[in-house]
Amino acid sequence: xxxxxxxxxxxxxxxxxxxxxxxxxxxxxxxxxxxxxxxxxxxxxxxxxxxxxxxxxxxxxxxxxxxxxxxxxxxxxxxxxxxxxxxxxxxxxxxxxxxxxxxxxxxxxxxxxxxxxxxxxxxxxxxxxxxxxxxxxxxxxxxxxxxxxxxxxxxxxxxxxxxxxxxxxxxxxxxxxxxxxxxxxxxxxxxxxxxxxxxxxxxxxxxxxxxxxxxxxxxxxxxxxxxxxxxxxxxxxxxxxxxxxxxxxxxxxxxxxxxxxxxxxxxxxxxxxxxxxxxxxxxxxxxxxxxxxxxxxxxxxxxxxxxxxxxxxxxxxxxxxxxxxxxxxxxxxxxxxxxxxxxxxxxxxxxxxxxxxxxxxxxxxxxxxxxxxxxxxxxxxxxxxxxxxxxxxxxxxxxxxxxxxxxxxxxxxxxxxxxxxxxxxxxxxxxxxxxxxxxxxxxxxxxxxxxxxxxxxxxxxxxxxxxxxxxxxxxxxxxxxxxxxxxxxx
Length: 490
Known about the structure:
Keywords: ATP-binding, Cytoplasm, Helicase, Hydrolase, Nucleotide-binding
Largest sheet: 7 strands, parallel
Protein name: DEAD-box ATP-dependent RNA helicase RhpA
GO molecular function: ATP binding; hydrolase activity; nucleic acid binding; RNA helicase activity
Shape: elongated
CATH superfamily of the largest domain: P-loop containing nucleotide triphosphate hydrolases
Family: Belongs to the DEAD box helicase family.
Strand order of the largest sheet: 3-4-2-5-6-1-7
Order of helices and strands: HHEHEHEHEHEHHEHEEHEHEHEEHEHHH
Number of helices: 16
Enzyme class: hydrolase
Distance between the termini: 127 Å
CATH topology of the largest domain: Rossmann fold
Helix content: 25-40%
């Protein structure tokens, strides 16, 4: 078994590594550290989460241990695509360089230049910078690059995605010809190959895993889902997939903000990080996530590269990444340092091409999440029982009291009593109706109305038969009797 002592590191550095809790180097560290100590150029292809940062930080500390720093002229330069990555590398230098007298400066955007310029004036051994801020200070004449002995271009494929390659070429042209250059990337597209050929001198190429492959410790799934159902699906997984800590990635900053608000409203301890948040707030949110104050971090791709946060159990791609390389880096936030992790990618309408590109890049089909992959026991569907159909009014009616039932029993009696009273009164009404008809027949014809329309009877009878009347025998007319029926049928 290879140990850090076998790699040729100094005793002071070995002590710092031991204090940090590391005993065995990762494959990329075992290959890269001896090559850097031998002052060779290095082209390293390693997936995220493999200890790539320590593979250049550790040997750099020993290489720079002897030397003199000068104002405005850093002795080494490390280029990182994002502020978070640059800050993480700075933390590594502070941790591993505790037993060495090395001075470091961090040049990133989102903070005031005053302290950064002051540090450069005092002289630095290690300069960690993002291309934008470095170019800004260089154009202002606040920094000179002609004394850099060692240059590291980290996350080169991410630099390509963010459009930093022209800046990288400009910076490399300002560096001295006699220098040691280290280039690390998780993937190796053609432009990065071209960049390596241009600026690296006979590099030692090391590839600890196939380019763009995913970590074996990560169990990945894809979930076909309608866009309007993404939030409910995410919340179900957060509640039911045994999530300890999770990072949720989205392609848009507006989606990050809206999703974080929704999760907080629904009782989740979540935070957000994206490009519109100032650096101090981003650092504070990341610290809350590391300290466990929140266990869900909703992020744009600004956090997809190199963030070394221990214990991230899940990664959710709320949106399928536009760039397939981003998929590798997103899910690489989990399954780090030998731990197991799970990654879910939501495939919405119109994401078929994007997920196909991801599968082509990784060379493997992502399995669809199904019932067999659920970590909790799903409730079993109860067998349907054939129940007798009830009248809708009976189903809707609330339970009645005993008094109400007695009232219902009394109602038919009352209606029967009314019917008997009505039956007694009918002969009198019939007699009155007969006499009135005879009187109308004896009147002269001039008094009769001209129109042949039937007149309503004065007894206030309805056009329709009263419900209390006796039933009409079957086959006889039971409606109002038209007047024309009385002619010729006497």
